[in-house]
Design brief:
The complex is a heterodimer.
Chain A: H1 3-29, H2 33-59, H3 67-81, H4 84-90, H5 96-99, H6 108-127, H7 132-152, H8 154-157, H9 173-192, H10 194-204, H11 206-211, H12 216-242, H13 252-265, H14 270-290, E1 294-296, E2 299-301, H15 307-322, H16 335-343
Antiparallel strand pairs in A: 1-2
Helix pairs in contact in A: 1-2, 1-9, 2-9, 2-12, 2-13, 2-14, 3-6, 3-7, 3-12, 6-12, 9-10, 9-12, 10-12, 13-14, 13-15, 14-15
Chain B: H1 3-34, H2 42-54, H3 60-83, H4 91-113, E1 118-119, E2 129-132, E3 135-138, H5 139-161, H6 163-173, H7 175-180, H8 185-211, E4 213-214, H9 218-233, H10 238-258, H11 267-281
Helix pairs in contact in B: 1-5, 1-6, 1-8, 1-9, 1-10, 2-3, 2-4, 2-8, 2-9, 3-8, 5-6, 5-8, 6-8, 9-10, 10-11
Classes of the chains: A mainly alpha, B mainly alpha.
Chain lengths: 349, 296
Amino acid sequence: MTAIRMARNVADLILIPAVVLLVIALVATGGSTTLTDATIRGLVMIVAVIGLYTFMGNSGVLSFGHISFAAIGAYAGSLFSMPPAQKMILAQGLPDFIKEAEVSAIGAPLIGAFAALVFALIIAVPIVRLSGLAAGLATFSILVIVSTVISNWSEVTRGTQGLTGVPSSIDEPLAVLPWVIGALVIGGIFQVSRSGRRLRASRSDVVASRSIGVRVERERFKAFVISAAVMGAAGSLYAQTLGTFGPSSFYLALTFLIISMLIIGGVNSLMGAVVGGIVVVALTEILLEAEGGLTIGPLSIGGIDNLSQVGLAIAILVILMYRPQGIMAGREIRVTSLIRKFRRGGSSA
Amino acid sequence: MSGTEIIQNAIDAAALGSVYALFALGVALIFGVMRLVNLAHGEIIMAVGYSLAITGGLPWWIRLLCALIVGMLLAAAMHQFAFKPLRGADDTTLLIASFAVSMLLQNLAFTWYGSNPEGVINLPVINSAVEIGSLRVSTLSIASALVTVILLVGIQLALKRTDLGLRMRASAEDFTMARLLGVGANRVVLTAFIGGGFLAAIGGILVVSQTGSVTPDIGFGVMLFGLVACIVGGLGTLGGAVLGGYIIGALAVTLQVVLPLELRSYRDAFLFAIVFLVILWKPGGIISSKALEERV
């Protein structure tokens, strides 16, 4: 495929979601602090979901451990961007070149992406041979291992106390937007590339795809590493929005959140990842409001603290039971199909 | 390390392994009939723990009974509301669903009780220890090992000798074929869940008695190890699950003893690294069943 053709394909794929997210970011910019905070968080989550989708959606392989990449990205990005004076006191065990470094907060996600990428390169080879249950459980092991190591390597990570005072370049939703667009571009390029198509073939039928010459492990490897990099960047961004974080910020709760976004939106399409992110953030914000207590008829549900988590769990179960492919059911919303619909005056193709 | 220390450690390993074995057996039972790795199995332990905490002042046999009933009811409810509607879905869907159920239950407990540990008044007899030669063995360890052995033997007998047991073994080996041959699917799956719930409840009683308190996420820790035990031992067979439980128990204790002091807190990381390697080497587990092997 020529570069121009690929560029057109990618744009076709990601333009609509990019515009939707741009509009959301713009609308939220003028709103209340709750709204902007939620939008910032949501956009960062969407970067992460796109990362997860790039592997899980294209390959059909479940990964419970992707948040470990986000964790590595968060720590790497934050440690490189924190002022050296702080590092001298807090993280004695760091090698000198990190202690003396002071990367701008904008560069931190790139460092995070790189660190996650290196880690993924190391562990990818055995993982890409697994699928189904074994993959889910093996990647889960990775999550536990990374979390345990971070929690205990106090000289470098401050263990369970976590890092504080992370420099942030994110003060409004539009600041996250370039990263979201970047993630969309990367995810889009992989998806429309030959590699991506081969991988999707293996998702439909592993045996058949092997029979036509798809080297499944190799394609999965590429997806794995790319998705890890995007996750790493997302992790660093998330750390910046939190300001203070520890290993528990990147463990089960976040894994559950990101996976639920992907499942609810539809695991098989990029638009699904984006839609899932938007829906879940909206849902959790509404439920967070309701946590203050509400009255339904004779029942008075006063301040259920974890209503948002409970609601999310119920939402996933409902989706899995009644619409297991998620909201988008594997469909994308492409510019070309919209134009086609427009030209025919609304009648569907 | 002296001989006594080795024996002491062996007893610890056996006690720990027993709890994991019980748990793994419950997971394997459910997996066998539904191909569902129930990540929410650990929450049965949590529910049992809270049940024991709530029934604090009552006579011990009432507390035990309540705990067992709570465990079995919760398992049946999980089946009825979450997993029965999803029967036939593929493995990863079921896995994610069980993850959702686990988070749901943990957060409900968190809502009702908060994250602070609830103290649990121990059942009598549990707190004492017995001296054998120069060893101090807590009655709890003895109880754990004994209970596990009795249950395992009992379950083996039930599976081999009773009609229901025969149906369950058939379903575990090849569910579709079993249904075609007239094995009542619903009955079997429900029994597997309730049986698993019973086992988890016993395991929960043992665990909570050891720690003396319960938190919303107490189930997760045990679930992790029990799950791992199941995988290492082989998901397709019940014997494998039990073997896995004891292996993991032994590994955990061995690592605790063998690792140099600085690395000891990383024990879980090492454990999971070993698990990771086992999954790579044999994705079906050490004792894998023929039905699970991919033929291409």
